[in-house]
Amino acid sequence: MFSFFKRKKTEAEQAAVEQSAPEAAPSAAPEPAPAPAPASSQAPEQPSLLRRWFGANGQAEAPQAAPEAELFPETAERPTTEAERKTSWMARLKAGLAKTSNNLSLLFVGARIDEDLYEELEAALLMSDAGMDATQYLLDNLRRKVKEDKLLDPAAVKNALKELMIDLLRTLEKPLELGRHEPLVMMIAGVNGAGKTTSIGKLARHMQTYEQSVLLAAGDTFRAAAREQLMVWGQRNNVTVISQASGDPAAVAFDAVQSGKARGMDVVMVDTAGRLPTQLHLMEELKKIKRVIGKGMEGAPHEVLLVIDGNTGQNALAQVKAFDDALQLTGLIITKLDGTAKGGVLAAIARTRPVPVYFIGVGEKLEDLQPFKAEEFVEALLG
Predict the structure, then answer these.
(1) Which domains does the chain have, with CATH numbers?
(2) What is the C-alpha to C-alpha distance for residues 368 and 162, in angstroms, rounded to an integer?
(3) Which residues make up each annotated binding site for GTP?
(4) Which of 78, 218, 249, 370 is most buried by a 10 A CB count?
(5) Do 161 and 347 touch, CB atoms closer than 8 A?
(6) What does the entry list as the binding residues for GTP (predicted)?
């Protein structure tokens, strides 16, 4: 932490100031100088970073955030209490998943518990992008549960499906743990248009509410204006951005890690160029960036996150597989669940490649990116 003090003027400087100052009115008595604040001999206490949790288990630990209206004017009217924020978040999440929710919920209205219901459920789950594996898993277990518990009421069958889906998605529920390393180095990947750079900006602001100092690296030197977009988020959050006008992205990442270590930062986030998993030469470049980050700090990157557009359906599962094979992903961020996203792809991920989902997003505002919680998600999906 830096402290800035006023330098005391020399006698010569003071005399020069008095000569250049306008002559005071005879009747005006000089005001007494304010008493200097007592100097503190003790440095301000720093928050402990040991085992700080950020995510599903960390909400209660979050300190009071600074007012966000100055940085994000669009959030000036956001709900003020925790209950209001939760209600607002659930309303937006339900609205984003409304299409799938309606398709599934309507099946249980006045339904008979027979083979026709299971066939309709199968079609609805497949339409929600759950995939064949997850759909078959849910239906097999639902049949078993209906038989064992002798369920005859459609509402009870619906609740049984909700419980099964929560249990399935809970394998993806994991908080992002801060304070394990100094700095914690995070590498962010994703295809173009997934909302990667915007998610980085939101994450930086969220981490600041947990008293984390953040440094960003503009490693996306491939896409036009990507560096400028990250610089805007850096200005909004008052965060330094390490960048080069036209440089090797691995070099930018290395410089950022070194700078983060030298400055004693808590978190360093490295943006990377968006690319399709079929672009093998670009995927090799991602591997190179990861290797170079490791040379800058042993064991880094500590988190390798993939940002996925929730509207891409089963293609999202293919992205998870490809990027996980190349980079060994530690977490996912699912964005844009406020559009035509169907939501079932999370079930497919849970069954096929259960990489933890750290955050989900339903819009452009800061509060539209929240930690993933299986129970909340299924409640929005099935009502």
Answers:
(1) 96-171 (1.20.120.140), 177-374 (3.40.50.300)
(2) 24
(3) 190-197, 271-275, 335-338
(4) 218
(5) no
(6) 190-197, 271-275, 335-338
Q: 27 burial class (0-12, 13-18, 19+ CB within 10 angstroms)?
A: exposed
Number of residues written out for the chain: 383
The end-to-end CA distance of the chain, in Å, is 48
pLDDT tens digits, 198-253: 899 899 988 998 999 999 998 886 666 667 788 887 888 889 998 887 678 899 99
Q: How far apart are CA 122 and CA 101, in angstroms?
A: 14
Name the nearest CA neighbour of 313 among 128, 134, 135.
128
Whole-prediction pTM: 0.78
Please report, for the chain, how many H helices and E strands are present, in that order.
13, 10
- The string of DSSP letters for 170-205 reads GGGB-PEEESSSSSEEEEEEE-TTS-HHHHHHHHHH
Q: Please tell me which of 8-12, 20-24, 191-195, 357-361 the model is most confident about, judged by mean pLDDT.
A: 357-361
Paired with 303 in beta bridges are 186
Q: Could you tell me the two tokens for 80?
A: 């003020």
The count of other CB atoms within 10 Å of the CB of residue 109 is 9
Q: Which H or E run contains 334?
A: strand 331-335
User: Quick one: how far is CA 50 from the chain centroid?
Assistant: 21
Q: Which residues line the annotated binding site?
A: 190-197, 271-275, 335-338
Give dist(CA 329, CA 81) in Å, integer.
35
Burial of 178 (0-12, 13-18, 19+ CB in 10 A): buried
- Measured CA to CA, the distance from residue 124 to residue 118 in angstroms comes to 10
Measuring CA to CA, which residue among 227, 225, 200 is closest to residue 214? 200
Using an 8 Å Cβ cutoff, are 329 and 355 in contact?
Answer: yes
